[in-house]
Amino acid sequence: MGLSALIPIAHSIRLFGLAQSHRQCGLYWFLLEGLFYALGATAYVKLIPERWRPGAFDILGSSHQVFHMLVLFGVASHLKGLVVGFDYNHSHIRC
Asked: Which residues are annotated binding-site positions for Zn(2+)?
């Protein structure tokens, strides 16, 4: 699901280039979203930080909680990208 934006992002970059895609679509916010999702999945799969100190993160700070926090950061980044795109497209009327 987190990779579902790759095709529209690639299409936008091909049509408009990096700089315009960032202005028009909030591109870098969506790339940051993907980074947060990837970091969260990696932390969860690799059991970070439990593998470093077994038993120390049983209640607070487990990899599952880290995963969920990074997903929330990804969601916030996605929302910011949507707002940037909305603001640009509603302040630059083309018709």
From this structure: 64, 68
Residue 76: is its pLDDT beyond 90? yes
Q: Burial, 78: exposed, middle or buried (Cβ in 10 Å; 0-12, 13-18, 19+)?
A: buried
- Report the distance separating Cα 43 and Cα 48, nearest Å: 5
Annotated binding site: 64, 68
Mean pLDDT of the chain, nearest integer: 90
| Sequence-ordered list of residues with C-beta below 8 angstroms from that of 85, at least 6 positions apart, any chain | 24, 25, 26
Six-digit token string for 17: 């280039």
The domain spans of the chain are 6-91
Buried b (16+ CB within 10 A) or exposed e, 10-31: eebeeeeeeeebbebbbbebbe
